[in-house]
Amino acid sequence: MNTHRRTTAGNRRKGGGTPRRQHLLEVNVRTASIKRQQRGRATSVIWKVSAAVMLAALLATGIRLASQKFFFRNPEYDLKHLVTRLNGIMSREELTALTGFSEGRNIFSLDLEQANQKLSALPEVRSVSIERTLPDTIEVGLEPREPVFLFAAPGDADPGESFIPGKSFLCDKDGVMMRPSKLDDKYLHLPVLRGVGLGDAVPGKKLDNQSLSMALMLRQALSELPEETFRISSIDVSKPYAAVVTDGSGARFTFGTLGNADLPSQLDRLRKLLDHCQETGRRIQTANLMPSRNTPVTFVLTPERDADKIAPVATPKKSTRHN
Question: What pTM value is reported for the model?
């Protein structure tokens, strides 16, 4: 009876190990199946990506060949019309040499952005416009910087008559410096500016200089006066406390510039003087507009004209009667 019980217990222990081994086998089978599925999906993704890359390469090649045939090698898109508005900044030949915009070249092969950068870098150019018009036209427009001052170099007595291309400096109303390489008649008629140091002057860059800023502000204010009554010939800002403005007639006007100088009041005094000259026909030689009252003024002394002299009145002689 004891033998039977031990046998039954042994059979139970042997039978208890079988489900555990089956479970391990099932886990291994499922793991292998999952790995096969993952490898299959990865392979499928790789094939799809490869196919997409190959298709994109074929499309790119096709597009490139088509563009070469229909655009870049199509004579219909060769440049035939170069429309320019250069405003005297450069010649058509100079534009072509700088940008490569020569007739016969394919307009799609021309780099408009690079040409814009080159033209915008010129100190004499304020703005650039470049347009491509199919099939064969490019339009180029240049807006020039308008110079307002011709700078007097140290030692120059009259730089307005000795403009040196490539050496004489000009500036526009914003203080941007220019050094033109060729002469233009309009440069000779610009107001001459003296007393501004040019050591930091760079063509195409704004000159940060307090004296220049004062001269530009004074010029802007004086430009509001009628040109027939006042035209700036030169401005001297060599003194830190005053600016001497010479007009077209040679009259010299001194403006205070130090501290809180009241420029509007000085301009008002100038207007009153100019009105006085208009009414009386007198000409100013010098005027100091700095004092707020009793403006010191000297007038040009003109020789007395014969027409202004008082002619003596002839007295008629009495006739002698003969009796």
Answer: 0.69
Angstrom distance (rounded) from CA 230 to CA 252: 11
Q: Which of 197, 193, 170, 192 is nearest to 181 (CA)?
A: 170
pLDDT in tens, 192-251: 999 999 999 999 999 999 999 999 999 999 999 998 889 999 999 999 999 999 999 999
Please state, as a whole number, how many other Cβ atoms lie within 10 Å of the Cβ of residue 173. Answer: 14
Distance CA 141, CA 155 (A): 39
Amino acid identity of residue 131, one-letter, is: E
Helix 18-67 and helix 2-16, axial crossing angle in degrees, nearest 10: 10
Q: 282: which 2 tokens? A: 């007198």
Which residues, listed in sequence order, are joined to residue 172 by a DSSP beta bridge? 147
Question: Which of these, 155, 154, 147, 115, lies nearest to 132 by C-alpha position?
Answer: 115
Return the C-alpha torsion angle 124, 129, 132, 137, nearest 10: -60
